[in-house]
Amino acid sequence: MNIRSSAFVLVACSVFLAGCGGGGGTGSSGTDPITAERNGINAINSMLSDQTTINTGNLASANANFKTARSGAPNDRVANAGYAITLVALKSQTLLDLLGISTHRAPTNGMQSILQNRLASARFGFLGNAFPKLSATDIQPVDSNGRVKMIGLFSNAAPSRAYPTNPTYIQVYAALRDVSAALAEADTILSNESILPSDASPLSITDPSKTNSTVKIGTVEIRALRVAVQALESILDLLLAYNLGFDTTTYPYNKSFATTFGGSLNGAPILSSDYLPTGGFGKLNTDGHARMAAVPTMLVTAINTSLSGMTAYEARTGTGWILNPGSLTSSQISDFKSGANDAIFNLTHDQAVTLSGEANTLRIPEWFANAPANLVPLFPTIHYMSSQGFDSVSYESTDFSDLTFGGLWVSPIPGSHAIGSTSVNDTQTVLDVLGSLAASNAG
Q: Is 198 helix (H, G, I), strand (E, B) or coil?
């Protein structure tokens, strides 16, 4: 088992459980800290044993119990770990409920489909190949394409609600901010290991994989959980930095692209200001500058946490842990450390990069520290064309006004890295087409 799959077992029982059901909960906080802590642990074990009972109500009840336990014993290891775990799980579940995602499985699309393939890809997809793709050893845990994936915010399940009208952007934005605040609180708790389970004093919980009756949480698991929380914090900072909302009564997001832009077929180019929402869309929010500046900093913190977790893993003995010693070879550990250190360097220094034979410099620290105030001008002009009965929308390098993407690159990137095209039919909506066009830019 590699470190990524092992980490997911941990996250599954920590960011845990978000996404397996809805409905109300039972039970309430105990009247004293000892009873409350016992009730909280029993609730966790019950949900891990029968995942059909995982829902907002039960998570809220467990979280309230651990909160009561902490109020009476602020340094209690079980109470602090339980509170941090259930807090993140509860807020994640609340967000999934809002999006109408009730079934939790291994992350592949779900929220990514809702927010990226719909609106988000129309916003950021054109900029996709302006950013480097991280390798699987750069940031853990990631998928094979180097994208961070975390249980609790991603799911395979199709949503039962229709963003952006139900829920609205305002609702999703508020929920994301709520999750972001919860992650920050959990991160603060998890950073104080003196009040958390350790290898010397572990916490035993029901094994969610059912391989054993129980598994132990110690220093390695706590640090792996903190990596997950910090990675999610950086993702949410990125999502919350810019105004992504629009007026659904004026922007034709769900109208036929062919009908909306039919007047431009084989005619005038369509500017980004014409196909993207107007108003404040794409502009930095009030706290957007601070959130963007925090993204690489938090990622570096997460990577350093993962390195300290690996150090603890190398010193670990015994069995029965979520992350058992001996699962990784010395070569895998060495590769992990090397990749992590490379990622830290790349996030904190300008990088010399060769694109299609042309030398360039990627300026990640500077770009995030001075993020563009408005993303809309960075999007290309697009062309709606018809040839031999085949309709398509496309753009090429000359359709961008700034191929440095707001100073992300010192020099404009080669034209071959800024080309995209997608077919269009009469039934596709504006967002469908823009999302497909954005995704067509493979870089």
A: coil
Q: How far is CA 164 from CA 22, 99, 102, 109, 172, in A?
A: 22, 10, 18, 18, 9
- In sequence order, what are the residues at sequence separation of 6 or more whose Cβ sits closer than 8 angstroms to the Cβ of residue 195? 74, 75, 76, 77, 80, 189
* Contact (CB, 8 A) for 83 and 225: no
CB proximity list for 312: less than 8 A, separation 6 or greater: 199, 219, 220, 223
* Amino acid making up residue 367: W
pLDDT tens digits, one per residue of 241-292: 999 998 888 999 999 999 999 999 998 999 999 999 998 999 999 999 999 9
Q: What CA dihedral angle connects 439, 180, 365 and 190, to 10 degrees?
A: -120
pLDDT in tens, 156-211: 445 666 778 888 889 999 999 999 999 999 999 999 999 999 999 999 999 988 88
Q: Dihedral angle at the C-alpha atoms of 282, 283, 288, 292, nearest 10 degrees?
A: 60
Which residues are CB-neighbours of 166 under 8 A, at least 6 positions away?
A: none
Distance, in Å, from the CA atom of 143 to the CA atom of 309, rounded to the nearest integer, reads 20
As a whole number of angstroms, the distance between CA 162 and CA 421 comes to 27
